[in-house]
Amino acid sequence: MGSKKGIVVTLVILIGVVAASFLFYLIPEDTKMKLIVSDFERNLDDIDERTLILSTGIEESFEGLSNHRLTSEEYFVTAGITQSQVNSLIIELTLSNPPQEWVASYKTYVDALKKLNGQITETIIAAKLMNDGDNSDSINEIISKIYELRAESLDLIEKSDSLRP
Question: Residue 68 — left, alpha, or beta (φ > 0 → left; ψ -120 to 50 → alpha)?
Answer without folding.
Answer: left
